[in-house]
Amino acid sequence: MRSTRVRRVPKQQPRQGSESRRDFEVFGHTFLQVTYNTFAFTSSVWTHFWQPSTMAAAAAAVVAKSPKGSLREDLTCAICCDLFREPVMLACMHHFCKPCISRYWRGTQGPVTCPQCRKEFSSKQFQTNYLVTAMVEKVRATTSDTYIKNLEKQLKETLESHRQKKEDVINSIRRDKDKMDTIKRFGADLEARVKGEFRALYQMLHDEETCVLEQLRREQEEELEKVQRHLEAMEMAVRELEDNMRALQQASGATENVMLTELPQLRSCVLVDVAPEFDTNAFSNKYLAPLQYITWRKMFKSLEPGPSPLTFDVDTAHPNIQVSRDKTAAVECDVMIPHTDHNKRFLQCVNILAAQGFQSGRHYWEVEVGSKPKWDLGVASEAVDRQARIKLSPETGYWTLRLRNGSEYSAGTQPWTRLQIGSSPQRLGVFLDCDERRVSFYNAGDMSLLYSFTNGPRGKVFPFFSPCISDRSQKPPPIKLLHYPHVALSG
């Protein structure tokens, strides 16, 4: 059975006359003010408490103490020390449970008073406060086991959601850091490779400079030695002539006194060759020539990869392709060229391969396409079907670049990848890295990258070309394989 505890306050004497009237006015004002504040507070709690984002905070606020007491304490009956049950308000503005205040008044004799402030009333009257009732029910609901379990469930779900989001963010951060590490590592590798390539170029240039300067020094010494030998011979001839002149002068003086019976013995004069001519033009021509261009051409022999001197394989040429005698030019023609049938030849498409195949290392070659309005070029796998009409793509064994209508460039992907190229290149460079499976296309005029395949071929491949069928009204220009012969400095 629940014990009844009453908080008592010192008894106050009832006031008469104007004081009673003033108390009533104060009571009315206070009642309205408290009722308004209670309504506003209840509305605020109703609005705020049921927001999902503040549910946990509201639940904590119900239980947490504040300097003025908790909401639960304010809604506790001073008689039963529990939440109000059927809360009623006395004229003194104090609230009690209806059963509690009724039982209290039945158990007391004398005037009807408030158990809390001892204010006396003329009769046992109270008023049901529905706002407080709603607040008590709300507090009671928020402290029920069912509510707490639901709240705990929502908190756990929210916590799990935040934990998952945190894990996702951490994973994203980890991926970004991995990307940064990959970029830095890849950049460092590329930087080392670029430095190595240029270091090799610097070394080649230094070696070439040393060689040219050494050749210049030797030729200069040879010319100086020629002049020096002639100079020494001339000086010796001068000395011998001077000796003969002195002997002749002495003999001339002797003829004045005695009869000169014989000429003095004279030294035979040194025969002096004509001074050698120094041909400044012949000496300087080789060094005043376009030395940079000559050196650049000489470097081709040492470049890795250097331009490969390709030739066409006539056994692979479509019957409508005519190949030049040196096998470096191919052009489409109207009539079929006599040919031998075998499985190497393309029969459905106007294609041709180079005779040189690659399956390892790095290789580079250049092709002159001139003003041809349409063509295809790149690399083809050795195992491509040459008897059928097949769309050019990596899936079918082709890694190509194409031109159509004179200005429409595309990479041979599936589907085609349109390329925006400013000026139409007349020469194209193809770079093949078999080890890294990379096929890249360049404008050979300025070495700007046009497109690069990173899913390159496996196994042996051959340079691939297709002059296509052009407009019959004009003579079609050929596709040419460019060769760069070695140029040496020579006298």
Task: Please compute the radius of gyration using only Cα atoms.
Answer: 56 Å
Number of strands: 18
Q: What amount of the residues lies in strands?
A: 15-25%
Largest sheet: 7 strands, antiparallel
Top CATH class of the largest domain = Mainly Beta
Question: How is the secondary structure organized here?
Answer:
Layout lengths: L17 H32 L5 H9 L7 H4 L12 E3 L5 E3 H9 L5 E2 L6 E2 L5 E2 L1 H13 L2 H110 L25 H9 L2 H9 L21 E3 L5 E4 L19 E2 L8 E7 L6 E7 L16 E7 L3 E4 L5 E3 L7 E7 L4 E6 L4 E6 L7 E6 L12 E3 L10
Antiparallel strand pairs: 1-2, 1-5, 3-4, 6-7, 7-18, 8-17, 9-14, 9-18, 10-11, 10-17, 11-12, 12-13, 14-15, 15-16
Structural overview:
- Belongs to the TRIM/RBCC family.
- The protein is built from 8 helices and 18 strands.
- With 491 residues, it is of the alpha+beta class.
- Residues 1-69 and 487-491 have low confidence and may be disordered.
- The longest helix is centred in the middle third of the chain and has 110 residues, at 145-254.
- A 7-stranded antiparallel β-sheet has the order 6-7-18-9-14-15-16, with no helix packed on it. It has a 6-stranded antiparallel β-sheet with strand order 8-17-10-11-12-13, with no helix packed on it.
- It starts with 17 loop residues before the first helix and ends in a 10-residue tail after the last strand.
- The protein folds into 3 domains: 18-143, Zinc/RING finger domain, C3HC4 (zinc finger) (Herpes Virus-1, 2-Layer Sandwich), CATH 3.30.40; 149-282; 314-481, Sandwich (Jelly Rolls), CATH 2.60.120.920.
